[in-house]
Amino acid sequence: MATSSEVAAGDVVQATDYNNLRTDVRATHDHEGTEGQQLNIASATDAGTLSVARGGTGAASLSDGFVLLGSGTGAVTPLDVTAKGSILVGDGTTDPVALAVGTNTHVLTADSAEASGTKWAVGTSISQATQSALEAETNENSYPPPDLFKHSPGVVKAYCGVASNQILDSGSYNVSSVNDNGTGDYDVVFNADMADTNYVAAGVCDNAAQQADDRTVQLDAKLSTDCQMLTYNDTVRSDVQSFVMFCGKQV
Predict the structure, then answer these.
(1) Fewer CB within 10 Å of terminal CB in the chain, N or C?
(2) Residues with Cβ within 8 Å of residue 187, at least 6 apart in sequence
(3) Does domain 158-247 have CATH number 3.30.450?
């Protein structure tokens, strides 16, 4: 008579130590038995396999890397998805299938005409937006490239800081230079011209010392190539540090 550590198919065991034995027997039998009962391990097997009803797979062997599909009380079904790029796809009725990898650069898309409901297909390309489309804010399936994003209506087309001595300060964009025309009078010269003179100019003056005087910067004249600005200390034209920006269409 075999001990619990020697249990094999066809052996008859005596359950003298029930707590140690039942783990061995439970793996291959549909009931635990009672202490002192003789159990035939061979009755727990089906042609060398453990059935699904008894907690097994119903299969004698399983291929490496396969996916196991449930089949009710029947043996599990192995599905080969080992091919490079294979995807497990359900069809809504029967067992899932392995969808083979598609052509390079193709994308997975839904298609109800396919048995799996999916297929690989050429992706929908997105075109680059043009300058006119950005300026008109056209509703289209496109993307703004970095070099054209500046043409969106809500984007500032040029800005700069002007020092109190009427020279270009650091931190500017699309401004090539500042021309000093005299006290409190300077031109901002654009690097890339504005499309016309229908642009907007705005600015502020520095008053870091929080002085009581009212410092302002005002638009004087506009060209597509540059814009003339005037700065005041109260009502007196003065050289005052300022910051200006311009919005509109750009060439």
Answers:
(1) N
(2) 178, 179, 181, 226, 227, 228, 229
(3) no
